[in-house]
Records
---
Amino acid sequence: MRIELDGIVGLGELEDAALAFGRSAPAQLVADAIESMVADLLDVVVGPFGLPLATEDQSEALFACTRCASRRGFRRRGFRPKLRKVTTVCGQVAFRSQQLECLTCGRRFAPAAELLGLTPHQRRTDQLSEMAASLAVEVAYAKASRLLAELAGPQVSARSIRRDVIAMAPDRVGPEVCEVPVLLLDGTGERAGQTKGGVALNLAIGLVARTRQGQRVKVEARLLGATLGEGWSVMGDLLAEVRPGLILVDGEEELSALAAERFPDVPVQRCLWHLSRGVYRAARYTDKSSHDLATDFGAQLETLLTNAYRSHDLNAARTAYDDLIDDAEACGARAAAAHLRGATDEVFTFLTHPAAGRLLFGDKGRPEVGTGVLERVMREMNRRTDVGVRWSIPGVRAILMVKLQRKYHHGPWAPTPAPHHPPTARFSLAP
Ligand SMILES: [Zn+2]
């Protein structure tokens, strides 16, 4: 390393100089390492420079002729006139590429790309594409491009990041675990495509553990399924191998139907938060009840659920529930009554199947069964897509599938087992 100073300089100048060095040195290091590695390999395979081995004396190479796939019998043919460039997480790597001639078929080729696992026209490494995608699932493509250059150095255009995200995105995501205590199902609309209502993002989340850390309760969630612009039956197929202990639904009829059809033996619990909100909305906006009356229905529902949870008295709970329906009807709140009646079979599952999905039940004195985890995921997804533009369906599907994969460690973000061997490449400053 060389240090050049024009007299006494400030810390700011040193920071700038060190950063500039830090931005360019790693890529140079990688390029030098590649050149020296390939040179050593070719010495072994075709013999040292100026002392070529006869074909019969050559050993089998780690690479093959790009035309006839021969692994033996090569001659050095100097270097490719142009540097091979590939943008990596540590900047643009540009290296000289040794060229060989195949003595079997006469083809000239450069073996470095194949040795490095690069495809013929690959301009970015997968690691860089994944790093750029990690930013793009949080912020707009143009901003991701800017942040990547500012914070990490590599220059990748917004258009290239978008192309990579679309290339790496699966059409849908399926489960990586099958045994889940609680299965949550819900959907949300995304502003994409031509239809006014947009397109549906459907999610299935499994809750696998619940831990308490001081005052906070942490729920461990796994992504079991994600589809965009496809019906719930596609989700049903994705979840074919999943065995849930309890299914939580928000009241959408299609979801309850799916649960009944695909998981006939699994108890279904209605999300109590959605139920309470649904009753308020039906009373307030459909039945045109006063705010006080609509709030009162909600409060009564809350009370009877808390009592049911504390007393475990199913008959009393059902009677109180039927009374609330009658009460709503008597007050002219027909839609609220219908909403409650529609949930009858799913509201007290926590009493009829107390062991199912046990870990969802809290200790705040009231049943804590809700699809809150899913609501938060939906909001997170919507934050990325509600950017004031109308997305194309493939565009919104790609960004959401990659965002979900990354959030839940699927696909390229799946945890890799810790290597058993020490790293095979190490760089350090010479003493
Ligand atoms: Zn050949």
---
Amino acid sequence: MIFQLLVAGQEPVTNQISTALMALLRHPSHLERLRAQPELLERAVEELLRYDSAFELTTWRFLAEDAELHGTRVPAGDSTIVSLCAANRDPQRFPDPDTLDFDRPVNPHLAFGHGIHFCPGAALARVELQIALGTLITRLPGLRLAVPDDQIEWIPAVLARGVNQLPVTFAARI
Ligand code: HEM
């Protein structure tokens, strides 16, 4: 349990910080708004989790009994994997899902999963993201990518999506 908590607790947060930062660097007006209105941080973190999540898929689920999933019969013993990122861009759930919008009135995203395996570290991860992003934005004015966007190397892992390196530049602190 301790091993799982350490591993599951470290890598997704690292990746989620870089994924959220990439989304902000690609939306400079959102970044500036957060700098000007830090009270938005809590809501912004929820939207950044919905918009691009470090956990693209859930782990495997094996069916204990025959079931019907959205019109498809799945026999007992067969498995399913849920795409959390696709659910987070479901237009029936989120109006204009491909838009990063800090003003969504409700945001029932699935970035931390759902049900019995819902991430037990969600509360900690939320605080870590708020502190990390808030600190970077306040302490590093003029934060922007130091290389063209297409030179950023993404880690193609579905349970640990992020970037290998994130070279940035910023204005000197006054
Ligand atoms: C932004 C960071 C994080 C994200 C996006 C994330 C996402 C997730 C997701 C989607 C699941 C469910 C997987 C499934 O249904 O198969 C999960 C499970 C889990 N997470 Fe997190 N997590 C994060 C941070 C953390 C932290 C900080 C901890 C611990 C301190 C942690 C510990 C775990 C553990 C132990 C499980 C397995 C729970 C179970 O199977 O019952 N996670 N996480």
